[in-house]
Specification:
By secondary structure, the protein is mostly beta strands. Helix content is 3%, strand content 44%. It has one helix and eleven strands; from the N terminus they run ββαβββββββββ. It has one helix at 28-31; strands at residues 6-8, 23-26, 42-45, 50-53, 62-66, 70-76, 80-84, 90-94, 98-99, 105-111, 114-121. The strands form three sheets. The protein has a five-stranded antiparallel β-sheet, with no helix packed on it. Strands 1-2-10-11 form a four-stranded antiparallel β-sheet. A two-stranded antiparallel ribbon has the order 4-5. A hairpin with an 8-residue loop joins strand 4 and strand 5. The longest helix has 4 residues, at 28-31. The two termini are 19 Å apart. The model has no long low-confidence stretch (mean pLDDT 81).
Length: 124
């Protein structure tokens, strides 16, 4: 599933130099993540209509939907992850539809009319 990126328009480059154009960072949730949301306790829904089920199973009743929301996550297995909705209810989402703000991040920077890799970061 594509995770997209985020353009940042700043007169200062990612590495602190001036005179460069925009930066492009991917995936977007790594750079736009709220600082008060600890990576091990939260995840982002990857889609605009991600179903939240009452219990584990594709045929379980749907109790809500997520739309690129950042949600508190809980127990997980290989296929499902528990999430807490904004109203406090807890349900489960197919694990492939939730990502945590961990893993790889790449920042591209445009300077002197050329794009270059400004940062390539990885974490587990």
């Amino acid at each position: 599933m594509a995770s997209g990126g985020l353009f940042e328009h700043s007169p200062t480059a990612y590495d602190g130099t001036t005179g460069c154009g925009p930066h492009f960072a991917a995936p977007w949730w790594r750079v736009a993540w709220p600082v008060d949301h600890e990576a091990e306790h939260y995840g982002v829904a990857l889609g605009s209509i991600v179903p939240v089920h009452d219990h584990v199973g594709p045929d379980a009743p749907v109790i809500g939907h997520l739309s690129w929301d950042i949600v508190r996550v809980g127990e997980e297995n290989e296929e499902w992850i528990a999430v807490q909705l904004g109203d406090g209810r807890v349900g489960v989402v197919a694990k492939r539809l939730v990502r945590r703000p961990l893993g790889w991040q790449m920042v591209l920077q445009r300077c002197d009319g050329r794009w270059r890799i400004a940062a390539l970061l990885g974490s587990e």
